[in-house]
């Protein structure tokens, strides 16, 4: 037995009790974290693959002083709120429709007064993708002092993708491209 102490290094050593429990905790922690990751990935997959359908409109009625005409609702989101860029508050509204086969848009906005001899407000409709913009013309004031626009598009162009609206302050006799943006809006927002 004299050599027994020299064999201690050859004996199988067991880890202490706290080390065994720590490895069990690590396995449990890994299982919980892996479960949360799988739950998150599954939720993300379901959210992205769920189709969000918007209710379809059957028809719109536009009334004029003479008659009321029924317009087929080929344009989604016919209304827009116009927001002033300096205040980020609503300053007007816009509506769009197809009237007698033509794109028709009405805009009304309360805008600051300007020197009409040197400046004017111009309305634009914008298609985000592929990017394009079309001038809807100069805005005029009505009897109430609001700037308004009543515009018909050309019959050979499809305006259904033009969802963004911009009102710019233009210099008379200046560049024909949009200048200072003062109001923006989007149909359906």
Descriptive account of the structure:
The chain is α+β, with helices and mostly antiparallel strands. The protein has 2 domains: 15-49; 59-187, Immunoglobulin-like. Helix content is 17%, strand content 39%. The protein is built from 1 helix and 11 strands, in the order H-E-E-E-E-E-E-E-E-E-E-E. It has one helix spanning 17-49; strands at 59-63, 68-72, 79-84, 90-99, 102-109, 119-127, 132-138, 140-141, 147-152, 164-171, 180-187. A 9-stranded antiparallel β-sheet has the order 7-6-10-11-3-4-5-9-8, with no helix packed on it. Strands 1-2 form a two-stranded antiparallel sheet. A hairpin with a 4-residue loop joins strand 6 (119-127) and strand 7 (132-138). The protein is elongated and about 100 Å long. Mean pLDDT is 78; it is low at 52-73.
Q: What's the topology here?
A:
Layout: H1 17-49, E1 59-63, E2 68-72, E3 79-84, E4 90-99, E5 102-109, E6 119-127, E7 132-138, E8 140-141, E9 147-152, E10 164-171, E11 180-187
Antiparallel strand pairs: 1-2, 3-4, 3-11, 4-5, 5-9, 6-7, 6-10, 8-9, 10-11
